[in-house]
Q: What sequence folds into this?
């Protein structure tokens, strides 16, 4: 079976003034459909850069990135936007909801750019919100929701397009322990339903939810190991 | 696509409503610009129509010939001071210039007209038979001069409306009444229809017409028989006017025995020339309006561009999020263009409203005629759309060119 993600000899080089920064150095990684992977590393390790490339927000300087068997490493801007819209869901540390806009409309956003009718957008967004346990809060704006609830709206927004890949960048970084556990619970449940989840974090107990842990250091894979089956009690 | 545009417009309107004060201040330039243009154009069009009516009141395709100022012994006389035109000139012109439909002549003076205890000092015109038809005077009641009236120098008069109002009690029948002009009794045989103000602003209806022969022999007195104050001629078509003027000049110069190099001792004017002067005035006005309009639309447009640039900066993260979930460059471009156009169109509509209101108020308060044409409103509307489009392009393009990663990271 073709792996969902196949990165091969990926380099990312920034030039800041005269200084050349090698954010990723010949990094290769393969992730299969349905995996729950935690990417760990200290700040400046290159994990955010990797995350951006995996999420088709950025492109590698050199190397190949195949998503579902298709080379996407060097596509033009608009085609990348199309791939993000169809195949990838994002969850950010700071939620990144559109302010003064209802939960429902936030969740509709990817469908809006897909060009669905308003009715279809509403139906799909409502069911996504229901899936993250926000039924009845469709018309609340972000300021009327707690941090945990806001992150759930963000997850609903990521889910609404039924993506094959969910990228979560420090999803619990701004949340208390209780909310963190709830959010991680949702991500786990989604993974059980077959969605590939890639989690970027520096917290060991959050990474522990994942089944595989990849540690990045100086733009290279330091370790890549299975961290035991998650035992459901 | 339609759904996208529609929802974006709804979002833009919501943003506008949320920042009412900011939106209002931004739109102010457009509102003032569009409002001023609508009001000014309405007033201008109203004035133009009034002038056109006045020009039409001269008659149709009329050529007017007056005596020029004559310089005798180094002293330049007043315009019309010399008496150089004659009935014979008029008759000769009709014979020698075939393009003229008819020629007429008149002489005039201010005379006291008396009816019982009422009196008025008004213009009295002694006119040839064809004068009234050339100058497009029509009768509201009674009849015109007959050939017999002209030949026999009959004591009959046709009165203008204003004069009727001065000389007669309300409800009193002027037709058939006996009035006196410079102590000569005249029978009123007709009353003219209302003509209104002349281009110079004088009342054209404060007038009495009597047969030319009567004026010459029984009322005005004359230097020599057959001298006239002015000759009037008309052509079938407007296009014939310039040619006719040239022919008239040749005939008149030869009749008056003017040598090459002598100045004309007469002045020829056509209705078209008078119209051109007026058109020139309104063209100047139009150019000025356009300058005012462009300046205020420019200022309004810059205001919109400014607020949009602020908005793009404020919403950088939002743009990043939109890009992350799949917005293409053109989606972002369209979103900000639509916001710019919403601002300018809403501003334009408010401006149109204010302009129409201002024009109405001008009519009500100052009594000036105003015309609000749908063309003006349409042009103003299109202009506000174009301003939004033009000035929205730069900020929208800036937003669309953002790098999604940097936009997402923007604090």
A:
């Amino acid at each position: 079976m073709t792996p969902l993600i196949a990165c091969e000899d990926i380099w990312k080089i920034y030039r800041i003034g005269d200084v050349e920064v090698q954010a990723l150095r010949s990094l290769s990684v393969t992730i299969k459909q349905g995996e729950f992977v935690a990417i760990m590393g200290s700040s400046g390790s290159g994990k955010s850069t990797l995350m951006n490339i995996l999420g088709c927000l950025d492109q590698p300087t050199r190397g190949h990135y195949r998503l579902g068997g298709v080379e996407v490493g060097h596509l033009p801007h608009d085609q990348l936007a199309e791939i993000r819209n169809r195949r990838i869901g994002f969850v950010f540390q700071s939620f990144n909801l559109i302010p003064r806009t209802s939960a429902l409309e936030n969740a509709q956003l990817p469908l809006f750019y897909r060009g669905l009718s308003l009715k279809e957008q509403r139906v799909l967004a409502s069911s996504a919100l229901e899936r993250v346990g926000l039924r009845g809060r469709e018309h609340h704006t972000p300021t009327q929701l707690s941090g945990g609830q806001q992150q759930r709206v963000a997850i609903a927004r990521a889910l609404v397009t039924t993506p094959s890949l969910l990228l979560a960048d420090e999803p619990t970084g701004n949340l208390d322990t209780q909310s963190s556990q709830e959010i991680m619970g949702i991500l786990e449940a989604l993974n059980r339903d077959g969605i590939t989840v890639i989690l970027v974090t520096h917290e060991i107990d959050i990474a522990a939810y994942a089944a595989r842990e990849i540690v990045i250091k100086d733009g290279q894979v330091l370790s890549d190991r299975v961290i035991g089956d998650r035992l459901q009690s | 696509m339609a759904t996208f545009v529609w929802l974006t417009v709804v979002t833009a309107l919501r943003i506008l409503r949320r920042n009412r004060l900011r939106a209002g201040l931004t739109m102010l330039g457009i509102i003032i610009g569009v409002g001023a243009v609508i009001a000014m154009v309405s007033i201008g069009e109203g004035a133009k129509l009034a002038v056109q009516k006045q020009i039409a009141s001269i008659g149709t395709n009329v050529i007017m010939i007056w005596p020029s100022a004559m310089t005798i012994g180094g002293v330049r006389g007043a315009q019309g001071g010399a008496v150089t035109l004659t009935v014979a000139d008029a008759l000769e012109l009709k014979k020698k210039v075939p393009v003229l439909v008819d020629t007429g002549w008149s002489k005039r003076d201010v005379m006291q007209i008396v009816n019982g205890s009422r009196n008025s000092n008004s213009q009295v015109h002694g006119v040839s038979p064809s004068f009234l038809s050339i100058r497009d005077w029509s009768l509201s009641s009674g009849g015109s001069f007959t050939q017999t009236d002209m030949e026999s120098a009959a004591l009959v008069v046709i009165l203008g409306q204003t004069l009727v109002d001065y000389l007669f009690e309300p409800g009193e029948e002027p037709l058939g009444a006996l009035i006196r002009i410079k102590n000569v009794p005249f029978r009123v045989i007709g009353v003219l229809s209302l003509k209104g103000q002349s281009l110079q602003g004088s009342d054209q209806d404060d007038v009495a017409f009597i047969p030319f022969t009567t004026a010459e022999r029984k009322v005005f007195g004359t230097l020599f028989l057959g001298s006239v104050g002015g000759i009037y001629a008309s052509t079938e078509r407007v296009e014939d006017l310039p040619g006719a003027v040239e022919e008239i000049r040749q005939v008149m110069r030869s009749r008056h025995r003017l040598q090459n190099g002598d100045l004309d001792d007469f002045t020829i004017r056509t209705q078209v020339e008078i119209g051109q002067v007026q058109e020139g005035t309104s063209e100047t006005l139009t150019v000025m309006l356009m300058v005012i309009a462009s300046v205020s639309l420019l200022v309004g447009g810059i205001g919109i561009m400014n607020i949009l640039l602020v908005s793009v900066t404020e919403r950088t993260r939002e743009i990043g999020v939109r890009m992350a979930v799949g917005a293409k460059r053109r989606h972002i471009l369209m979103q900000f263009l639509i916001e710019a156009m919403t601002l300018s169109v809403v501003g334009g509509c408010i401006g149109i409203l204010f302009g129409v209101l201002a024009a109405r108020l001008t009519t009500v308060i100052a009594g000036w005629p105003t015309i609000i044409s749908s063309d003006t409103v349409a042009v103003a509307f299109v202009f506000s759309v174009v301003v939004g489009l033009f000035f929205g392009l730069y900020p929208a393009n800036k937003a669309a060119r953002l790098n999604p990663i940097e936009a997402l990271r923007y604090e």
About this structure: The domain at 35-48+76-226 of chain A is CATH 3.40.50.300 (Rossmann fold). The beta strands of chain A are 5-16, 19-31, 36-40, 62-67, 70-71, 88-91, 165-169, 196-200, 212-217, 220-226. Chain A touches chain B at residues 52, 55, 57-58, 77-78, 81-82, 84-86, 90, 92, 96-100, 109-110, 112-118, 157, 161 (CB under 8 Å). Chain A has a mean pLDDT of 92.
